[in-house]
Every structure is written in C-alpha cells, then in structure tokens.
Design goal:
The complex is a heterodimer. By secondary structure, chain A is of the alpha+beta class. Chain A has helices at 3-17, 22-25, 81-84, 152-175; strands at residues 30-34, 38-42, 46-55, 64-72, 89-92, 100-108, 113-123, 135-136, 140-145. The mean pLDDT of chain B is 85. The chains are: A alpha+beta, B mainly alpha.
Chain lengths: 181, 263
C-alpha cells in the first residue's frame, strides 16, 4: 500500500464519516434572549430583566441553570452582584425541542454608570459534563443616572427644631404656669 | 340614660388619663425622647454618604419604620402600665369605687394609650416629609404609616391592657408586653431566614414585623397597596383577638388583685 493509497483511503473515510458530524449539531441548542436591549434608570431604581430561553435543538435539553450577571462598561466602577440581586441564579427544567420558558429577575441599580446585564445558561451538571454549551444572551445595556436628593443640610433644621419644640412643650407641661392644682 | 352614663363614663376616664399622661409630663417627655431618636436616624440617613445603598425611598421607609415600630412600642408600654400601675400606686381602689363601669375604665385607658401613638405619628411627620422631598412619596408614606401604625397600635394597646390587668405587679406587666413582642420579632432579624413555610411563618407571624414588611413592599418595591395585604393578617388578628378578649373578659380582670382567677 503506497503512501498515496493511504491518503486516499483516509480522505474517503473522512467523506464517509462527514455526515455523522451533524450528530453533535443535533444536540440541544439553547438560545437566550433578553426582552429589552437598553434601559435608563436612576440609581436605586428596581428594574425587571426578562430572559426567554428556547430549546432550538431537536432533543430535549438537560436541566439547566440560568445565571444573571452585571458587567460594568465604565472602568473604576466596582460591581458587587450581591448588591444588585440576592438571587442571580435560577434553575430551568428540561425543555422539549422547540420549547421555551421565560425567567424574570428584579434587580436594583445600586451603582451609577453604564452596565451590561446578561444571562448565561449552562447545564446543571457543568459545561464539561453535558453536550449543551454555555450560552450567553445578548446584553441589555442599563444606563444608571446618579440621583442624590437627600441632603444633610436640608434634614438638619428638622432634626434640630423638632426635638427643640417637643422639648419646650415637655418643659412647659411639667412647669404648668397656667395650671391651678 | 344608661347608654349616656356609659359613654360619659369612658370619656371622663379618657380625659383624666389623657391629663395624667400629657399634662403631668410623662407623655411629652416620651415624645421628646422619640423626637431625638428620629432626629438621629434622619440625620445619619441623610448625611452618611457611605450608605450608598440607601435610595431615597429606602431612607423614607427606614425612618417611617422606626417611627411606627417605636411609636407603637411606646403605646404598648403606656397601656401595660394602665391597670397594674394603678394597682401598684394604690390608686385603683379610688377608680373602682368611682361611678363608672369597669369596661368604661378600660375604654378610657385604651383611648389615652392610643393617643401616644397618634402623638408619635404627628412628631414623625416632618422627618418623613423632609426625606421624601423630591420623590413624591410623602403622601403615600404618611397614609400607609398612619394606617399600619394605627392597626398595630390598636392591637398592641389592647394586648398591653390585658397583660396589665392580669399581671401581679407593674414590673411584670411592663416587662412581659415588650418581651413577647421582641421575642417574636428577633427571629425575623436573622441574616438568613429559613426558606419555605417556616421562614414565611416567622415573617408573617409577628404583627410588627409583618406590618413593617408591608410598608416596605408599598414604599420601596412600589407594589400596589392591595398586593401585599396578606401581610396585615397578623396585625388584624391581634386587633380581633386582643380586642375581643378585652371587650368580653377584660372588665373581669380589673380588680384590686392581679391574676386571672375568679373573684
């Protein structure tokens, strides 16, 4: 068997096996999309993030985990996900082919700036353990405007005057110059 | 004629109790301490830039919750002094021989103790107003605070009077009411409440905790006022149970000696 024969045989084998390649493409393909592309809020506001998870494959998906994440687009802004949401992760039951489910998170914008909020879906057993790859949604851009209207200067007069007035009333009630016993 | 005498009886007791409370200085002093507390909370809330998580509605909610919780607690303490305090000071005998029914005595003391809550709420109004400036929630916050606080105050004042009537001494009465309240409130302050029905029962079982949770849901989460009404089940149950026992059995407990045994 010559070298050329071996090469031809390998190529032929490859051509024969090529149709088998779509077998992995037929594995469940999960797609994630968010309901909105961009939203503008004020700091402290709560906003809903809605993710549509679709099984676009032709086999049922395995149990999945959907994880919401927040990434800053401004350097110097530290994002602590726990401050934005207490429950970033939600479980997703197996989806039939063509099936879909909608998940919703309510998050609180606690930093000022621009952020990408996105959802990642992965198999509950870990990416390596299952054929479904880790899938991320397109981001929803959240622009958070600063808003600080609580003013110590504005609160100070009230903080001083109210106890003063109540104290004067208390002293007057105890002294009772008008009272006849 | 009998009805007229009954209504006159409780108003006379209420007026006398109100005079003792507000003119003799105890009520105004309590309100002074209350206003100092609210001043500190309001100023720290408004000035502490480190508390970045404090969105303005949360700041309003925080001050309102302190006002409601402390206001109803003070009303509870005042009511817990109602009968047992008279007993310890030796003045209950005079009250019992006065031409008013025992139910009228309880009604008058109930109204007087309830006035502490309304006074506390009046003191809290400027604080809520100044913190809510700009976010247009002063009105809803004050309405919700008044409604929830009054509901809590009615239930707790009735409970305080019952405890006071059956307690053997004023010290016991003054200790038991707040202690019961704190004992049921403490588990709700755990950093992580158990999930499921146990956590939910802890959250909803304490009337004050459940009432404050309702305020947060309306003011901070922006829920419609009808959405979390189920959280007011415990405050309503306290009003119904304590109120019913006070009305039906309360007069029997107004005696020179404490305890629940029959005379």
């Amino acid at each position: 068997m010559t070298y050329r024969t071996v090469v031809v045989a390998v190529l032929a084998l490859g051509l024969v096996l090529l149709p088998a390649a779509p077998a992995s493409a037929q594995a469940p393909q999960v797609q994630v999309t968010l309901a909105q592309r961009e939203v503008a809020v004020g700091v402290g506001d709560r906003l809903g993030i809605e993710a549509l998870i679709v099984n676009a494959g032709d086999r049922p998906s395995e149990p999945l985990v959907a994880h919401l994440n927040v990434a800053t687009l401004d350097t110097g802004v530290y994002v602590d996900l726990e401050d934005w949401t207490a429950g970033p992760t939600q479980g997703v039951e197996p989806l039939d082919p063509g099936g879909s489910t909608t998940l919703r998170w309510v998050i609180q914008a606690v930093n000022v700036g621009r952020f990408n909020v996105y959802v990642v879906v992965m198999p509950r057993g870990g990416v390596a353990a299952a054929p479904t790859p880790l899938t991320a949604s397109p981001p929803e851009v959240v622009a958070v405007a600063g808003r600080r209207t609580i003013s110590a200067g504005g609160a100070l007069p009230v903080a001083l005057l109210v106890p003063l007035l109540v104290g004067v009333v208390a002293v007057a009630a105890r002294w009772r110059p008008w009272s006849v016993r | 004629m009998a009805d007229q005498s009954r209504s006159t009886g409780w108003t006379i007791v209420a007026r006398q109790e109100g005079r003792d409370l507000w003119i003799n200085g105890r009520g105004p002093l309590l309100m002074f301490a209350f206003s100092v507390l609210l001043s500190v909370v309001t100023y720290v809330t408004a000035s502490n830039l480190v508390l970045n998580f404090l969105e303005q509605r949360e700041a309003v909610n925080l001050v309102l919750q302190v006002a409601v919780a402390v206001g109803v607690l003070v009303a509870l303490v005042v009511s817990a002094d109602g009968i047992s305090g008279e007993r310890d000071r030796g003045t209950l005998e005079n009250l019992l021989v006065a031409p008013v029914s025992r139910r009228a005595i309880l009604a008058g003391k109930f109204v007087a103790a309830l006035s502490v809550w309304f006074a506390a709420f009046a003191v809290a109004i400027p604080y809520v107003w100044v913190l809510a400036d700009g976010v247009l929630i002063a009105g809803p916050a004050l309405v919700a605070g008044l409604a929830v606080g009054t509901l809590l105050a009615v239930g707790l004042v009735a409970l305080g009077l019952l405890i006071s009537a059956v307690s053997g001494s004023n010290t016991v009465s003054l200790a038991v009411g707040p202690l019961v309240l704190l004992a049921s409130f403490a588990p709700t302050q755990l950093p992580r409440l158990p999930q499921g029905w146990a956590g939910e029962a802890l959250r909803r079982g304490n009337p004050v905790g459940a009432g404050l949770h309702y305020l947060s849901a309306v003011l901070v989460d922006g829920h419609h006022w009808t959405r979390d009404l189920s959280y007011l089940a415990a405050p309503v149950a306290t009003v119904v149970l304590a109120g019913a026992v006070l009305v039906v059995a309360g007069p029997r407990f107004v005696r020179l000696t404490g305890g629940v045994s029959r005379e």
